Amino acid sequence: MPEFRLPSELVLFRDMLRSFVDRELIPVEHLVQPNGEIPPELHAGLAAKARAAGLWLLDVPEAYGGQALDLLAMAVFWEEISRTITVPCRDYTIFGPAIGPILLNLNDDQKHRYLLPVIRGEKVACFAQTEPDAGSDPASMRTRAVRGPDGYVLNGTKRFITNAHRSHFAQVMAVTDPGKGAKGISCLLVDLDSPGVRVRSSQQTMMGERPSEIYFDDVHVPYENLVGREGEGFALAQDWINHGRIRHGARGCGVATRCLELAVSYSRQRKTFGAPLSERQGIQWMLADCFIELHAARLMVHDAAARLDAGRDARSETFMVKIFGDEMSFRVADKCLAIHGGIGLTTDLPIERFWRDQRSFIITEGPPEVLRTALARNIFRHFN
180 is in which domain, residue-wise? Predict the structure, then answer.
């Protein structure tokens, strides 16, 4: 088998990103707040440095001032910036406003009202799919959008919505035809200052975050705020989620790399019973296992991203990337934390933050049990 190699331009891009992370982001990790956010003034300063370095609007089409990077390039980006806790694990806006693939599918009028203001930094968007009774099973969602004389009437509740408290509008998945299951779900753009919309903070998570709940009570949504056609919402969400699975896997590689960097350095310095930890076979094997898993995960991420860039079906590959990348990075963070002993439990090092964040990533955007079940269905079809 030939060795997989990144294109030379992506190697240069990776090296530039790594230098930026080492020079600008890792040195200010001590300024990260307990909830994982960074102070606004620090965010503004780092965003200015990222923009000056050419790390701005990376996945936005060139027509809108972006760099139009493909998914493989974005996988390289997500991995490198995930080596530091200075970049919040669910907020990459240091490198420009969060766009996402759904907003790029808007019609011209919708782009003028929603996409362009987001790119200019005038509006913030959130994605609202999860519900109290419909997390990993979106086909069972209860939020309904019923046709009226001049628009939809929206009722329902969304839960665990990231950034809803600071968003101006939401990309809301709602049932427009309850008899069609997943094919009866549509995507609506809903202004969060509309009458009948209420946003409130939800439970405090172990990561320090407070995701929001959004309540819709007879909210009027004009027909021109429908994205695509009725019934296309699930497909639009899947496009979002496919990108998200690559991001999960790439982030896992970045986290594992940083944890290994710290563990290798510490094992060389820390002596027990007259010898450094690095000479202990137990430690060597732990590090070897971590390195093996990291290498495998990175190859899986690059393969899946390249398949999607080529327009190929990569559902099984993205399932595996999400499952393996998240679980691998948590195992690596756990082992590297253990290698550090008591100091690993302190907030002096970023490992405990990585440990908590990666445990949460295993659950969010598709738990491994659900993805393994979906993957198994594909396996049975493959070997039919």
Answer: 108-227
Task: Identify the DSSP state of 3.
Answer: P
| Helix (H/G/I), strand (E/B), else coil: 109 | helix
Pairwise CA distance, residues 377 & 383, whole Å = 10
- DSSP run (H or E) holding 75: helix 71-81
The alpha-carbon radius of gyration of the chain (Å, integer) is: 22
Structure tokens that stand for 354 in this block: 């990585």
Domain boundary pick from 227, 244, 264 = 227
* β-strands 169-175, 125-128 pairing: parallel
To which residue do tokens 């695509």 refer?
Answer: 228
For residue 2, being part of any structural domain is answered with no
How far apart CA 13 and CA 11 sit, in angstroms, is 5
Q: Looking at the DSSP assignment, which residues form a beta bridge with residue 174?
A: 186
189 three-state secondary structure = strand
DSSP characters for 232-292? -HHHHHHHHHHHHHHHHHHHHHHHHHHHHHHHHHHHHH-EETTEEGGG-HHHHHHHHHHHH
Gap between the Cα atoms of 109 and 229, Å rounded? 15
Identified catalytic residue from 122, 213, 365, 369: 365
pLDDT digits (tens, 9 = 90+) for 291-327: 999 999 999 999 999 999 999 999 999 999 999 999 9
Domain at 61, CATH number: 1.10.540.10
| Shared domain check, 176 and 156 | yes
Q: Count structural domains, the chain.
A: 3
Domain check: are 259 and 301 in the same one?
Answer: yes
Considering the domain boundaries, does residue 287 fall inside one? Answer: yes
Same domain, yes or no: 310 and 261: yes
209 plus 270 within the same structural domain = no
State pLDDT tens for residues 77-126.
Answer: 999 999 999 999 989 999 999 898 899 999 999 999 999 999 999 999 99
**Do residue 353 and residue 305 come from a single domain?**
yes
Q: How confident is the model at residue 384 (pLDDT cuts 50, 70, 90)?
A: confident
Pairwise CA distance, residues 194 & 190, whole Å: 8
Quick check: is 327 catalytic?
A: no
| Total-model pTM | 0.93
Do 223 and 241 lie in a common domain? no
